[in-house]
């Protein structure tokens, strides 16, 4: 994100502080959403690929 701000400030010297804060906030939100989505997918895949839990026959009444 900082490289985007640096490049933007060189190409557009009239970058305001509000624009810089907007880029930082937007980039941070993007990263948080991406991380959250990735973790949810990993957990779903791990739960799907997990072997079935062992069954205790004493609890089933058999």
Explain the layout of strands and helices.
Blueprint: H1 2-11, H2 17-49, H3 57-60
Keywords: Membrane, Transmembrane, Transmembrane helix
Transmembrane segments: 20-38
Protein name: Natural resistance-associated macrophage protein
Describe what you observe in this structure.
The longest helix is centred in the middle third of the chain and has 33 residues, at 17-49. The chain has one domain (2-48). By secondary structure, the chain is mainly α. It has helices spanning 2-11, 17-49, 57-60. It starts with a helix and ends with a helix. It has three helices and no strands.
Number of strands: 0
Give me the Rg, rounded: 24 Å
What separation lies between the terminal Cα atoms? Answer: 61 Å
Approximate helicity band:
over 70%
- What is the strand content? under 5%
Give unreliable regions as ranges.
none
Q: Please give the largest β-sheet.
A: none
Counting structural domains, the number is 1
| Helical stretch tally | 3
Organism: Caballeronia catudaia
Transmembrane segments: 20-38
Keywords: Membrane, Transmembrane, Transmembrane helix
Protein name: Natural resistance-associated macrophage protein
